[in-house]
Design brief:
The protein has 10 helices and no strands. It is mainly α. It is globular.
Length: 230
């Protein structure tokens, strides 16, 4: 059984459309905003839930991770690369909020979008073809993980949290992020693993990563437009 090319292209186009439209809708819902603004003291479980929900709906983080695992076949390699990303974003998420690191939200989100462009370009073999060299894969995943975590920290700082119970709440949020990341990647891995059994995977891997780059460029332009218009 083969996936028809037209169907594959249609599915990829719909996915890109969803990503682009999500760029204008992504954020914290009103109920969560109200809770975060009014919360005082320790609330480990609610923050864990909010962290998981944020990651599952965090299209920019997930697009980057999809690019990271797209050509990884061994579970050990997938775990290793995802761990580098996790270490990076955990460090800046916790320190960013605790130390009150102030970064422009539009600029940090533009860098996160750039990470998606980078990974799509890398998967297409762009560095080897154009620059005749290959960046350190694990190092770049770690570095971009730091930026992704700083992006999360920047969003959280907008709520001016009460210091009481802050560390516990942040740990809960971070664990929630990891749970959401695990669930989302599990779904993606199942989809990619099934897709690899079909000839269309090899044929459309170039188109898929080109769409990944395109989505990154769209998000980056959106964020830079917001920065210059702010």
């Amino acid at each position: 059984m083969k996936i028809k090319p037209k169907i594959s292209l249609l599915l990829m186009a719909l996915a890109l459309l969803c990503v682009c439209s999500a760029a204008f809708a992504h954020g914290v819902d009103d109920i969560t905003k109200a809770f975060l603004k009014d919360n005082n003291g320790t609330a480990f479980v609610p923050f864990l839930y909010i962290g998981a929900k944020h990651m599952i709906t965090g299209y920019d983080h997930l697009l980057f991770l999809v690019g990271v695992i797209f050509f990884l076949y061994k579970p050990k390699e997938i775990l290793l690369y995802v761990s580098f990303f996790t270490i990076g974003h955990s460090i800046t998420l916790l320190l960013g909020v605790l130390l009150n690191w102030q970064v422009n939200a539009y600029l940090i989100d533009a860098i996160i979008a750039l990470s998606i462009v980078y990974k799509g370009f890398d998967n297409l073999g762009g560095f080897e073809k154009i620059f005749h060299s290959q960046p350190n894969q694990k190092g770049t995943v770690l570095i971009f993980g730091l930026f992704h975590g700083l992006g999360l920290a920047t969003k959280l700082q907008e709520f001016n949290f009460n210091k009481e119970g802050l560390l516990t709440n942040l740990i809960g949020f971070n664990i929630g992020v990891e749970i959401g990341q695990f669930l989302a990647l599990l779904f993606v891995l199942i989809f990619i693993s099934v897709w690899r059994k079909y000839n269309s995977f090899a044929r459309f891997s170039t188109i898929t990563n080109t769409l990944l780059m395109t989505a990154g460029f769209v998000l980056m332009i959106f964020q830079l437009t917001g920065f210059f218009n702010a």
